[in-house]
UniProtKB/TrEMBL annotation:
Key words of the record: DNA-directed RNA polymerase, Nucleus, Transcription
Origin: domain of life: Eukaryota
Subcellular location(s) per record: Nucleus, Nucleolus
Keyword rRNA-binding: no
Entry coiled-coil feature ranges: none
Molecular function in Gene Ontology: DNA binding
UniProt-recorded name of the protein: Uncharacterized protein
Family: Belongs to the eukaryotic RPA49/POLR1E RNA polymerase subunit family.
One GO CC term on file: nucleolus
Species annotation: Larinioides sclopetarius
A GO BP entry: DNA-templated transcription
Pfam family, one: RNA_pol_I_A49
Length: 311
């Protein structure tokens, strides 16, 4: 008689979503299924959504006398986050093999007892210390009391130091905020136009603004041929080059001065720490704009006095 051959076919469950299978392992349980419905199961799922991990679930098994509770995130198997449990079910009639997602639960008896919340939060050394204070000898109690007084005094000293450090840090932050307020110009809340929000002399000193006539001529006399030369020199940022390309025909002297000063500020911002350590960190910024920018925007104000003589 020829042996019957059985073929196993794996069927994908992407189209038909199969329900998950719960694998339960009982600990300290004496289960005797004498009745048909002697054991009832209830499952709970967490509302938190995390795409990187499986949803947290709890399984409760109830009998006439006791309940068993377990979760899929507290067992040893659930600690391996990269594992994915599957259960295969073979249908003898259709000779097909279907895979179901599975969750493993380690069920333990749920014992109802009084729990001292304060006691459960204490460490093992603190509990041992409480026992010694209650049932220990006089010498043991005296040693523990002295140590507790010493720790209390040390904690008071540490807390005082923390308060002093926080006060000093708040003072430093306040001073930094004052310096920041000095850098940011005041706003005109009654302004009707954009150019009326800030006073231009709060951003550019009046003396520097009057001296920008000579430097602004390079933007006043620009042509399409000169634009390509300016782009090849790589001395100006893309915003200034694009603005000149669009508005070079009707460029006013005021706008040219603003573009020139904006270029100096851009050079200041792009300067690295290594370049600041040089003798002249801003060779592309002429005087007196170099001194005023360093005085206003550098943290170490003494650097401005050091480089004021550079021409």
């Amino acid at each position: 008689m020829a042996k019957s051959e059985t073929k196993l076919l794996l069927q994908s469950n992407n189209k038909n979503l199969l329900p998950p299978v719960f694998l339960a392992e009982f600990s300290n349980a004496d289960l005797k299924f004498k009745k048909r419905h002697s054991l009832q199961f209830q499952s709970y799922r967490s509302s938190e959504k995390n795409a990187l991990s499986n949803p947290k679930k709890m399984l409760v098994a109830s009998t006439d006398k006791l309940q068993y509770v377990g979760s899929n995130f507290e067992s040893e198997m659930s600690k391996v986050t990269s594992s994915l449990l599957k259960v295969g079910v073979y249908n003898r009639r259709t000779r097909q093999f279907k895979l179901h997602d599975a969750d493993f639960f380690h069920l333990k008896p749920l014992l109802k007892c009084r729990v001292d919340v304060n006691n459960s939060q204490k460490s093992w050394s603190e509990k041992t210390q409480d026992l010694a204070l209650t049932f220990g000898s006089k010498n043991r109690k005296r040693v523990i009391s002295s140590r507790l007084k010493y720790e209390s005094a040390a904690n008071d000293t540490i807390s005082h130091d923390k308060v002093q450090s926080s006060i000093s840090s708040e003072t430093t932050i306040t001073e930094e905020n004052k310096e920041e307020c000095q850098i940011i110009p005041p706003q005109n809340k009654n302004a009707n136009r954009v150019d009326e929000i800030y006073n231009i002399y709060d951003v550019i000193p009046k003396g520097d603004y009057d001296c920008l006539d000579t430097e602004a001529k390079i933007f006043m006399n620009v042509t399409r041929e000169n634009l390509q030369l300016l782009r090849n020199d790589a001395k100006y940022c893309e915003f200034i080059l694009h603005f000149l390309e669009v508005r070079f025909q009707n460029l006013s002297l005021h706008t040219a001065k603003l573009l020139c000063y904006l270029n100096y500020m851009t050079v200041l911002i792009k300067t690295t720490y290594k370049e600041l350590k040089r003798k002249d960190p801003f060779p592309d910024i002429p005087q007196p704009y170099k001194s005023s920018l360093m005085e206003k925007y550098l943290v170490n104000r003494h650097l401005a006095q050091k480089y004021c003589r550079i021409t």
